[in-house]
Amino acid sequence: MAGIKGTRAWKRIFFVFWISQAFSLLGSSLVQFALVWWLTRTTGSASILAAASAIAILPEIFISPFAGVIIDRVNRKTVMMVADAAIALATLVLAGIFYLGWIEIWHVYVLMFLRALGSAFHFPAEQASISLMVPDKHLSRIAGLNQALHGGINIIAPPLGALLLEILEVQGTLTVDFATAFVAILLLFFIHIPQPEQSMANGRMTAQSLFADLRLGLRYILDWKGLVALIIIALIFKIALSPAFYLLPLFVNQHFRGDAAQYALVESIAGIGMVLGGLLLGVWGGFKHRIWTIGFALCGLGLCFIAISQLETSQFNIFLVIFFILSMMIPMIDSPFLAILQANIPPEYQGRVLTMTTSLLNLTTPIGLSIAGPLSDHIGIRFWYVLAGILCVLSMLAAFFIPHVRDIEKNHRI
């Protein structure tokens, strides 16, 4: 395996890689803000927003496992470059439709699906590349740094998106994604990203070989009893947690009577929280047992959602404070979980195992959204914040009573 993580050059190469992904993420965040706010203001419907979110998650559920198998067999840098280019071109087409005044809601649905399809290939290729560049002992810190990057983009993108919407309207905002994708692809072109040994990838890639690799990835997950138990626990609380996040713009707009600027402020506050949480994790590294970091952060997340559900329409400032604390918890959950996978899964398996894990974790998201949309139109959105909070706290308590979850890193192939 042509790795760089055992050399002094890994920091320089990873930094260029990290900057490239920052540009890619910025463009994606601007597009996401513009489209979500356009749907929110145009329709004001929780069902429409939930449907858009469900459509955007479908590729992660059904396509990601196959994408992971392909990623384990081909050059991961090429996958990232092609995915970025395809997403940017699709976004440019939608910008033209907006400009010509032909836009309909289903056009936005199609673009969200295509962007999610590209991301289904891009994200696992990016994450599977990190473990080949970064020494194992630094994976939690790098995961925290990546969460800080996401938080930083969340700080910049919403106000920038609101400003661009005011100046350039939706079509102009969408075209920015093309420029950021170009920079991201250009930076990747000039660096070497190591590839795993692929003894099993020799020969022609066929449908039979893809399904065989897919079965191997699934078998790897099923043999890891702690991961299976953790996925089942996550499926329980994500059925309410996902709608709570996806319906946030509607909550700001309807409950607090907020506009684009206030929604941008919420996203930026969340970004600051994620940056601080990611930096804290990057410096601290979390508890020795990463699962404890996940558990305590999940409990904090749940308590914050319960507090949000009790706020009155005049308490927007208090909402910002709670949402800031809530956002600090996100890196404490996502980063240690990703570090557990990266540290324990062999590089030649990481593409398929990461994507299949993501796919399994998202199984209940469209179900939750399909229920949350129509129900929220009738009884309001606050119910989902109560439910999400309670399920998060109960899930954390359940996890600590399950030995396989508590000891997920001690013997990951039980």
Question: Summed up, what is this model?
Answer:
This protein is mainly α and 414 residues long. The chain has 16 helices and no strands.
Index terms:
414 residues, mainly alpha, Growth Hormone, Chain: A, 16 helices
Q: Describe it for me?
A:
The chain is mostly helical and 414 residues long. The protein has one domain: Growth Hormone, Chain: A (Up-down Bundle), CATH 1.20.1250.20. The chain has 16 helices and no strands. Helix 3 packs across helix 7 and helix 6 packs across helix 10. The two termini are 27 Å apart. The relative contact order is 0.17.
CATH homology-level superfamily? MFS general substrate transporter like domains
CATH architecture: Up-down Bundle
> What portion of residues is helical?
over 70%
- Taking the alpha carbons of the first and last residues, their distance comes to 27 Å
Number of helices: 16
